[in-house]
Amino acid sequence: VPSGAVAERTFRVVMCGDAAVGKSSLVNRIVNGQFLSNLPSTLGVDFHVKTVKHDGKVVALQLWDTAGQERFRSLCKSYFRRADGAILVYDVSSEQSFLRVRHWMETIQEAVERPIPIVLLANKSDLRDSGRAVISANQGSTLAAKMGVLFSETSALDGNNVDPVVHTLTREMLAVE
Ligand code: GDP
């Protein structure tokens, strides 16, 4: 997208999922196209903007991320209320983060006034090669189907599937009226 292009639509996308699943790394991958092993931690709640061109439309995505607030459920309602879309992340090497997906789903659904497009991401797919993944892709896609959300395996480290996810979510948010 050429710099200076004016976005026709702006969407607020919230990142959620347990601590350390790779939310900030995914935001950095989406916005800067890179992986940093030592990301400077955000203070509180912050967003980064990714501008994408989808079907000839210039769309600005505000990617909202939190620093450690995952632990404080109280923050969640206001954080999620005005969301246009959500990226719910777990780590394929952490069973605990997978078991917590339903909790995050409930938190989103309680907060929003009407359903929003949600994509469930099985992040750190690169760990499959070294046998460190404990949750299969099939477990992830089955859960996503039950919850009625989109699903993809991703890696913030090697970039696997990250761009397609951004476009799929953008398409779904554009389809909401
Ligand atoms: P957050 O707390 O959910 O924002 O997670 P971070 O983005 O801070 O990442 C937590 C840890 O996981 C860091 O050590 C990252 O370098 C690492 N990490 C994040 N994404 C990936 C990934 O796709 N693959 C691997 N192998 N490590 C990752």
From TrEMBL:
It is found in: Cytoplasm. It comes from the Eukaryota. The lineage of its organism: Eukaryota, Metazoa, Ecdysozoa, Nematoda, Chromadorea. The chain holds residues 428 to 604 of 627 of the full protein. This is EF-hand domain-containing protein. It comes from Mesorhabditis belari.
